[in-house]
Design goal:
Blueprint: E1 5-12, E2 15-22, H1 23-35, H2 40-50, H3 56-87, H4 90-94
Antiparallel strand pairs: 1-2
Helix pairs in contact: 1-2, 1-3
InterPro entries: RHH_dom, RHH_sf
GO molecular function: transferase activity
Pfam family, one: RHH_4
């Protein structure tokens, strides 16, 4: 049986290190890097700089989780705002000035 954890080498701040993550976390990390116009190494370096404890793999998992949680919260807020706007009578919106 193949392990769900994938070990990859990555260069952080000029030195090579190995990071073990499940493939969905690698994919999420790649998506985040693309969305920020950054390299994967740059995103991992910033995670490494900002972590206060724990190992790098755990810090990356928490970073990816937090990113998608925040994205979900923002999506729900946008949807709620849109629904509120769509349910507000037009005369209420126009007379608000």
């Amino acid at each position: 049986m193949k392990s769900p954890v994938v070990k990859r080498s990555i260069v952080i701040a000029g030195h090579k290190t190995s990071v073990s993550l499940e493939d969905p976390f690698w994919q999420g990390l790649r998506e985040i890097a693309v969305s920020r116009n950054m390299t994967l190494s740059d995103v991992v370096a910033s995670i490494d700089t900002d972590r206060h404890e724990g190992n790098l793999s755990s810090a990356i998992r928490l970073f990816v989780l937090d990113y998608y949680r925040t994205m979900g919260i923002e999506h729900r807020r946008s949807a709620a705002a849109r629904d509120t706007l769509l349910s507000t009578p037009v005369h209420s919106v126009l007379s608000a000035d």
